[in-house]
Design a protein that fits this description.
Layout: H1 4-28, E1 29-44, H2 48-57, E2 60-75, E3 79-83, H3 90-97, E4 105-110, H4 119-123, E5 126-130, H5 142-152, H6 157-171, H7 186-197, E6 204-208, H8 216-233, E7 236-240, H9 244-250, E8 253-258, E9 261-267, H10 268-275, E10 278-285, E11 297-302, E12 306-312, H11 318-328, E13 331-337, H12 341-350
Parallel strand pairs: 3-7, 3-8, 5-6, 6-7
Antiparallel strand pairs: 1-2, 1-4, 8-9, 10-12, 10-13, 11-12
Length: 404
């Protein structure tokens, strides 16, 4: 016989199960967000004195939705590239995850903490590196900054010295630890920046453009060091970068955000398979091929002893194309390659599946509105009157959900 008390327990069991499941998920995820949103209220002003007076008397307020309800689940020890064009909402998201900004609505936890409520506790568990904002004291040597950070994070002196020695060896920065930061090269400074962010043994590290402005050798050194560090300590890395080399070398997974929404979340290795439908074939042949009429094949270059072809694999298989070429001439050398990952990411940004004007729209990629061009320098082309949403948080304007 079921008692009234037993009935009450039975009725609350589903809620109890859901609560336990949610708690388990939160504790086992490094980063978890649900419908996270951020809306800024910005002022617009017409040019001239009249526009300035009108803005004072009757300000024209505009709502800008920087982040439009994103859901993220990032496991502990995972390396995730969080990328998108300028103004997509990357910096705003990071500021909410580190507790700098309050969201307009939605939920987020980092290592089980709510960032904007438990910011002080969370600061002992996370580290951050911003490529254009240094935490090193400019006129002092890095060792002085390290000593200061050990006091800020209340580290045990003996543990601090062991940790500092370990980081100095791992990042190979011992020779310039006593040189003022202003005299260090950019690559040397970035290695010190990353080492400083890892001094207190964070479990999650936010890297915002960690290799910006570095030369080829310095970029490679920073990438190798970060990769080795992640393998050794199994830290969670949340990476934003416009450098595709950072993404390919460091990240296991890529999340693309555009217009404040996640448009793609997939493993890096799957991008080429799911969103690339073209191959490039380079051939060295015995004689020129004058008549190669194969559906889905475009001749990019043709010389007497060489050809470069572009093959649309949705129309024609690679084996069929090679068989057709072998029927026409003797092939002395052949190489088959994919367009670079950068082309694929740019195609997803612009809502196309390849880097030419005749490509089809990417399927299942959310919004496909064209955005500014994507380049190596990390800058996108914007219309002069557009609002850069990512930087709205630094502009001093009033924002919903935050006391200013």
């Amino acid at each position: 016989m079921v008692t009234s008390q037993g009935v009450a327990i039975f009725l609350t069991l589903p809620k109890l199960t859901a609560r336990v499941r949610k708690s388990y998920t939160v504790m086992h995820m490094a980063i978890l967000t649900r419908a996270l949103k951020k809306t800024f209220i910005t002022k617009t002003k017409e040019p001239g004195l009249r526009g300035s007076l009108r803005a004072i008397m009757r300000p024209n307020l505009v709502e800008v939705q920087a982040v439009k309800g994103i859901d993220l689940e990032i496991s502990r020890g995972e390396v995730v590239a969080f990328i998108g064009p300028n103004g997509a909402g990357k910096s705003t998201t990071i500021k909410m995850l580190t507790g700098i900004l309050h969201p307009t609505s939605g939920e987020a936890t980092v290592l089980g903490y709510v960032p904007w409520k438990d910011r002080e506790k969370l600061s002992y568990k996370i580290g951050s590196v911003f490529g254009q904002k240094s935490q090193l004291w400019y006129h002092l040597p890095p060792v002085d900054t390290f000593n200061l950070l050990s006091k800020i994070y209340e580290m045990d002196p003996s543990e601090y010295l062991r940790r500092r020695e370990f980081l100095v060896d791992a990042f190979e920065i011992g020779e310039f630890m006593n040189i003022p930061v202003r005299k260090l090269s950019l690559g040397q400074r970035m290695r010190c920046e990353i080492a400083a962010s890892l001094l207190h043994k964070p479990e999650v590290v936010f890297l915002d453009e960690p290799t910006i402005g570095l030369d080829v050798v310095a970029r490679q050194n920073v990438r190798q060091t970060l990769k080795k560090w992640n393998d050794q300590e199994n830290i969670t890395v949340f990476l934003t970068s416009h450098d595709v080399g950072d993404i390919e070398y460091l990240a296991d997974r890529v999340i693309i955000i555009n217009h404040g929404q996640v448009v793609l979340d997939d493993k890096v290795k799957n991008l080429k398979y799911r969103y690339l439908h073209k191959k490039v074939i380079d051939l060295r042949v015995s004689h020129a091929v004058t008549d190669l009429d194969v559906a889905g094949v475009k001749v990019l270059k043709a010389k007497e002893t060489g050809m470069k072809l572009e093959v649309d694999t949705r129309v024609q298989g690679i084996d069929e194309v090679i068989a057709a070429i072998l029927r026409e001439c003797e092939v002395q050398d052949i190489s088959i390659s994919d367009p670079p990952l950068e082309d694929i990411i740019a195609a997803i940004y612009t809502g196309k599946t390849a880097a030419d004007d005749g490509a089809n729209v990417v399927e299942d990629a959310g919004e496909t509105e064209r955005v500014g061009g994507f380049g190596h320098d990390g800058h996108d082309s914007h219309d002069g009157g557009s609002v850069d949403v990512d930087e709205a948080g630094d502009s001093g304007e009033t924002s919903r959900g935050e006391a200013v």
